[in-house]
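Morning, I've got a small favour to ask if you have a moment. I owe you a coffee for this, so here goes:

…
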Amino acid sequence: MSQRQSNELQTAKDSLLSEMNFPGGGWHLQNITSIKHCVENFKISDTRLFILEIVNHMRNPKATCTMKFKLAQLLNLLKSFNIRGFDEIMIEFRNQILNSYIYLGDQQLGDAAVKMINNLWNIPLAVKPPPRQGLRLQRIKINTPSANVLRRISIQEFPYIGDNLRSSSPPPFSE
């Protein structure tokens, strides 16, 4: 059984290597099908080794933006397969993956690759403030000394308070 597992891991690695050697931006259906079939039968340890292989391709100094774009596509595809242990393994390699996608923003496929990588952890593209909660207003007590003073003051004593046109301007100057 262990030999079968290692054969599937090697088949998936070979398909990945074949795809990385192809200069185009798309994936061959044969390679995707082979990887999908192998990954569905992986143990968690095999999944970890395969993702480590992907991370090694990402961190390779010779990796082009197109290669990193294809690897981001592959990781999102693997996420969609709902593989056992995938999320935990991705958290383990998170910093290495994010660091390999730092300088891609100005290249042709860089923005799309970064968005796909951020999608793996559902990282927002912009930090948004949390929604505001409704503020609870305190009850105004009507039988306090300050409330009694306010009750004695009327709008007639301050005409500019009731005037809509002057509500934002200072009171008129009088000598």
Summary: Residues 48 and 89 are 6 Å apart (CA to CA). Residues 2-120 form a domain with the Serine Threonine Protein Phosphatase 5, Tetratricopeptide repeat fold (CATH 1.25.40). The chain is about 60% helix and 0% strand. The two ends are 101 Å apart (CA to CA).
